[in-house]
Amino acid sequence: MMYYLLKLFLSAGVIVVVTEVAKRNNAAASIIHSLPLTSLLAFVWLYAETKDAGLIGRHAFGTFWFVLPTLPMFLAMPWLIKKLGGFWPGLGVGILVTVVLYAVTMRLLKVTGVEL
Predict the structure, then answer these.
(1) What is the pLDDT of residue 36?
(2) Are the C-beta atoms of residues 80 and 89 closer than 8 Å to each other?
(3) Where does the pLDDT of residue 1 fall: very low under 50, low under 70, confident under 90, or very high at 90 and above?
(4) Rounded Cα gap, residues 87 and 85, in angstroms
(5) DSSP state of 68
(6) Would the CA dihedral through 57, 60, 65, 66 be positive or negative?
(7) What is the structure's pLDDT at 35?
(8) Close Cβ partners of 72 (under 8 Å, ≥ 6 residues apart)
(9) Distance, CA of 59 to chain centre
(10) What is the band of 26 on the pLDDT scale with cuts at 50, 70, 90?
């Protein structure tokens, strides 16, 4: 039980740190946020629980391919927020576009024979 609480608080702590730093220094928060901290934590937790380095390698490979369709959202968000009149509409459209790009990515991976 303590292990799961540790995982929960360390993982959630990353989000808290980013949001608190962003209130004071957006550039620093953007750098922290851009680090693959969630992925690194997931790798550590997964390895600690399975000791399966091959699983971590396969997971990292899959993560690489699914990071790519999320990148356009980060570029589009400032424009979407301005164009659509606020955070929620911009976020909503950004999420929809990302979901479509995930589907396209999965189709392209299948067509090209990339196994995840």
Answers:
(1) 86
(2) yes
(3) confident
(4) 7
(5) G
(6) positive
(7) 80
(8) 97, 98, 101
(9) 13
(10) confident
